Amino acid sequence: MIPNEPPFSPDRPFTVARVVQWGEADPAGIVYTTQFLDYVMETVEAFWRGMIGVSFYQLHKQHHLGSPTVSSQLDFQQPLRSGEPFTVELRIPRLTRSTIGFSLIGRNTAGAGCFTGALVSCIINDQTVRSVPIPDWIRQPIEAYRAATGETN
Amino acid sequence: MIPNEPPFSPDRPFTVARVVQWGEADPAGIVYTTQFLDYVMETVEAFWRGMIGVSFYQLHKQHHLGSPTVSSQLDFQQPLRSGEPFTVELRIPRLTRSTIGFSLIGRNTAGAGCFTGALVSCIINDQTVRSVPIPDWIRQPIEAYRAATGETN
Amino acid sequence: MIPNEPPFSPDRPFTVARVVQWGEADPAGIVYTTQFLDYVMETVEAFWRGMIGVSFYQLHKQHHLGSPTVSSQLDFQQPLRSGEPFTVELRIPRLTRSTIGFSLIGRNTAGAGCFTGALVSCIINDQTVRSVPIPDWIRQPIEAYRAATGETN
Amino acid sequence: MIPNEPPFSPDRPFTVARVVQWGEADPAGIVYTTQFLDYVMETVEAFWRGMIGVSFYQLHKQHHLGSPTVSSQLDFQQPLRSGEPFTVELRIPRLTRSTIGFSLIGRNTAGAGCFTGALVSCIINDQTVRSVPIPDWIRQPIEAYRAATGETN
User: Quick one: C50 exposed, middle or buried, by C-beta within 10 A (0-12, 13-18, 19+)?
Assistant: First the structure.
């Protein structure tokens, strides 16, 4: 997954580019259902590393925090084929005291939407496994990104 | 995944039993988000093989049909740990002309719900890639299962 | 993966039974290379749980030991197709002070060998990450299994 | 996986760069055995797309050829951690009438070798599933790459 560079704007969100690997497609030649959640999480992990500045592993090891998924919704519009390049755009339409609401759109090279995802993550103390307020060093880059991409709620 | 045997009833749905493999858990020791859609699809595939009588591959090769996923919703209640046994129950609360609506519940050995899934699949002609009415040989075992498990809608 | 039950003999080793999932096969309809190491490790993990009595997670959490792979060799004789049932047999031709040498054979329903694997694992202290002598509670069930299956080296 | 650009030389082979995803590491925090064959095949697929000019899917769909793996050997020198950047170098020390012999080295950011792989692929007619002579349009870019990287056998 190759992320694009800032600056970001409402029409130019954080986006990663990728090619469908051979083994990610099924005997019908299209990406199988189970693979899409990998694409979503690869994008979310790339956002954490690139925009918040830590991997999930650093979050865990250095900050004793975790970011488990509370819920995920995937909707499929059209298939992605083996070998096909695609992009995934990430937006953050919602941010609460302890949760981050991601919205993702996967597009083929024609720009057509192939899948959309909505993922809610929670920030937890990884010792107590209970939600905690999102610390400022995480909240601020997210708020800055939300402002750049025109999120207003 | 080891499925249970009929007879099925409202309190005893089609259920598969499984253990969390070591590599399915992340550095926090719990099953990672992306893995749950594999658990869901493993269960759905086991249902097709056991209750409808064909694998997805036979559906594709012999019947020229496919069963792509239209949408999937996953909600997480509590973590599953590496090495932990668990079960996944499958119900079919909804059946339309061309779509099958699955409902899944993952439980740990204490019986507590760890995750729930809602998956909508569509039956398509795999040449035209367009939805078709669900053929009787697929619909009848599903309707029989729905009756056995008390689905009434 | 469903393991068989004891007693074991040279002609009846520890064996797990499995079906190829739809998404484990590629657009050519056959299991893709990367998947076979999953089949091998699923079998090795089933052996640990069933015959030594701990999952890798219990080994890690309760005994502060690990069992990383030192080397793996896979050879492919013929393809496994999507939806095809298969078995994996596990033997332990070699056991040293700190290493366990597994040998695996994957067979289709006709009994023909589809793939073979040779895997060497090491037992380590998971704090120092250095190899340690295999403790007796691990060595003894392995030696008993080796004797039952006719290993003599 | 981000590949480097030509020119290539004996000291500068085709190399892809990657970060260990969170879920690719196990509860001990290191990449699990099964994942390494994915890294190897991702690299081989990137070489096919970048240097031979087709994806495995185009090879299959447009040329009616396949490139199944005959054998793979992996050796592990030291662990890769969750979140750690790494590179995989690809060389082709051996090329026969129908087979391609790849050699791969995975390195961490300190340049230390973490794993090595040796993979033999075969070119087949995907209808007959029998090996065929490697066509010139595949052989020539491989020979050019072998010459650039100093392979002489």
Answer: middle
**Cα A148 to Cα A142: distance, rounded to the nearest angstrom:** 10
Banded model confidence at residue D153, pLDDT cuts 50, 70, 90: confident
Distances (CA, A) of D18 to A48, B105, C32, D89: 15, 35, 21, 12
Given a contact cutoff of 8 angstroms between Cβ atoms, the answer to whether C109 and C103 are in contact is no
What mean pLDDT comes out for the span D122-137? 96
HSE, side-chain direction, 13 A CA sphere, residue C150: 6
- A142, two tokens: 């997210």
The total of other beta-carbon atoms located within 10 Å of residue A11's CB is 7
Task: Count CB neighbours of A63 within 10 A.
Answer: 15
Residue C29 to residue B2, Cβ atoms within 8 A: no
| Regions in chain C scoring below 70 on pLDDT | none
**Residue D124 and residue D64: Cα distance in Å, rounded?**
9
Q: Is the complex ipTM higher than 0.90?
A: yes
Q: What share of chain D is helix, strand, coil (3-state, %, to 5)?
A: 30, 40, 35
Residue the block writes with tokens 């720009």: A111
Share above pLDDT 70 across residues of chain B, in percent, rounded to a whole number = 100
Give the SS3 label for residue D4.
Answer: coil
- Alpha carbons A77 and A106: distance in angstroms, whole number: 10
Residue in chain D closest to A53 (alpha carbons) equals D83
What band does B153 get if pLDDT is binned at 50, 70 and 90? confident
Residue D88 CA neighbour count, 13 Å, CB half: 28
Confidence at residue A1, expressed as pLDDT on a 0 to 100 scale: 74
> Token pair of C40, please?
């091998």
Cα–Cα distance measured from residue A20 to residue A23, given in angstroms and rounded to the nearest whole number: 8
Neighbours of chain D (3+ CB pairs under 8 A): A, B, C
- Contact (Cβ atoms closer than 8 angstroms) between residue B97 and residue B144: no
Residue-wise pLDDT tens digits, B8-38? 999 999 999 999 999 999 999 999 999 999 9
Question: What is the predicted pLDDT for the residue at D39?
Answer: 98
Quote the CA–CA distance of D117 and D38 in Å, as a whole number: 11
DSSP 8-class letter at A149: T
- DSSP state for residue A110 in the 8-state scheme: T
* Token pair listed for C70: 């030192």
Query: Given an 8 Å threshold on Cβ–Cβ distance, is A23 in contact with C32?
Result: yes
Which helix (H) or strand (E) is A147 found in, with range? Answer: helix A136-148
A56 contacts in B (CB within 8 Å)?
26
pLDDT average, residue stretch B95-123: 98
Looking at chain C from residue 51 to 70, which residues have their Cβ under 8 Å from any Cβ of chain D? 56-57, 60, 66, 68-70
Q: Which residues of B touch D25 (CB under 8 A)?
A: 26-27
Sort C62 into a burial class: Cβ within 10 Å, 0-12 / 13-18 / 19+. exposed
